[in-house]
Structures are given as C-alpha cells and as structure tokens.
Amino acid sequence: MEFLIVIAIIVALIVGYFCLGMLLKLLLQWWLPLVCAGPLLILAFGFGWTGAIGAVVGALLLIGFTQNWQESPTYLALEAKIDKAFYFDDV
C-alpha cells in the first residue's frame, strides 16, 4: 500500500510541475489583457455609451499591444527559458 502512495505522490508532483509550467506560460502570454480587463470593464459599465465605446477602442488597442508583446525579443527569450525549464520542447 505504501508503494502505491509513493507512486501516486510522484505522479502528482510530475503533474503539478507540468501545470505550474503551463500556468507560468499562460501568465507570460496573457498578463497584459488580465491586468487591463478590469479597468476596461469598469470603464464600459461605469460611463454609459461613451465608456462603452472607449472600452471597445481600448480592447482593440489591447489586442495590438498583446500581439506586439508576443512578438518581442523579451517575450521570446522568456518563453524559451520556460520551455527549457519545464521541458516543453521535448513534447
């Protein structure tokens, strides 16, 4: 029985390590929209039609900023480090 518990703990650690890597990669890719979504929603619902139009324009700009971030050398270097640290290149 102890052997099965040890195997289950090892499998759980491997799965947890993989999930941590995926979470870090997700946050690296989408940190800007996650940070800006709240203020855009407050703008959209708090200031009527003007705020809604401003939030739509802000969301469109945010898409462009996110695309630029994901093409930047800094992002690509950080992504490569995460891929190497969590062995995502092996898949």
TrEMBL record:
Domain of life assignment: Bacteria
Protein keywords: Membrane, Transmembrane, Transmembrane helix
Positions of transmembrane segments: 6-28, 40-65
Keyword match Transmembrane helix: yes
Name of the protein: L-lactate permease
Organism in which the protein naturally occurs: Achromobacter insuavis
Native organism taxonomy: Bacteria, Pseudomonadati, Pseudomonadota, Betaproteobacteria, Burkholderiales
